[in-house]
Amino acid sequence: MELRTAASPRDVKHYTTERLREEFLIDDLFLPDVIKLVYSHIDRIITGSAVPVKETLKLTAGDELRAQYFCERRELGVINIGGAGTITIDGKAYHVAHKEGMYIGMGSRDITFASDDAAAPAKFYLNSAPAHRTCPTVLIKPEGTPEDGVVIVKDCNKVELGSLETANHRTICKYILPGQVESCQLEMGMTKLEPGSVWNTMPCHTHDRRMEVYLYFDMPEDALVMHYMGEPTETRHIVMRNEQAVISPSWSIHSGCGTQAYTFIWGMVGENQDFDDMDDVAMTDLL
């Protein structure tokens, strides 16, 4: 498990491009038959991935957590951006198709990941936060029935925003949030930009009560997203490629503009789960 320390905005404004990428960019995700985990001191979020190809992969705590098992004191959110696969939790198997997800509650001991087809492996994207109580484990489907009797299934809360005229026509699909999928602090969802739109989260905002991580994907090899971060009056950028993630401290804006439409997963942890609790930044105030 890779460890990342917190960063002060007074220091970040002096960082080089290389240093910005070292601190905030998460690269080399979705390696075959590897579970990759990055532990950030910013609200103690863990961002990672599991790509089972030839093997079934087991999630363990590692020495860094000083825990008997990964979810001993943690909750876990998962969204699959690859082929269909199975997540097995304490002996119960959940089939997770493309762009379906799971919330896995604290106390889940034995968690494994497998793919249906090695030629089209699952790509499980992971966000985890410290937890103080156990919330129900849930299979989350963007489409589907409210419940199928064996596995709890939740329809994702979809919101359409923006317009083609402002190049930000997008659909937000909320997977984990209060009133839909219960959690201690973790929120998670996916935003898909429509063809011709390239801007996300603009006009931008900050939220001191929680931090955020973005995963950009559904991008061809020659495409990129210019991810904007930093204090509103000290903005910086990081060039993002397909299937890379970026850590956004609570004091930082988090917005992006791509060379074409793309999709991104957002994950938030912190003390406030109010999705609309944002400190908006006027376009005229950005520097």
TrEMBL record:
Pathway: Glycan metabolism; pectin degradation; 2-dehydro-3-deoxy-D-gluconate from pectin: step 4/5. One of its GO terms (molecular function) is 4-deoxy-L-threo-5-hexosulose-uronate ketol-isomerase activity. Its cofactor is Zn(2+). It is an enzyme of class 5 (isomerase). Binds 1 zinc ion per subunit. It catalyses: 5-dehydro-4-deoxy-D-glucuronate = 3-deoxy-D-glycero-2,5-hexodiulosonate. It comes from Roseburia hominis. This is 4-deoxy-L-threo-5-hexosulose-uronate ketol-isomerase. The lineage of its organism: Bacteria, Bacillati, Bacillota, Clostridia, Lachnospirales. Belongs to the KduI family. One of its GO terms (biological process) is D-galacturonate catabolic process. Keywords: Isomerase, Metal-binding, Zinc. Zn(2+) binds at residues 205, 207, 212, 254. InterPro entries: KduI, KduI/IolB_isomerase, KduI_N, RmlC-like_jellyroll, RmlC_Cupin_sf. Its EC number is 5.3.1.17. Catalyzes the isomerization of 5-dehydro-4-deoxy-D-glucuronate to 3-deoxy-D-glycero-2,5-hexodiulosonate.
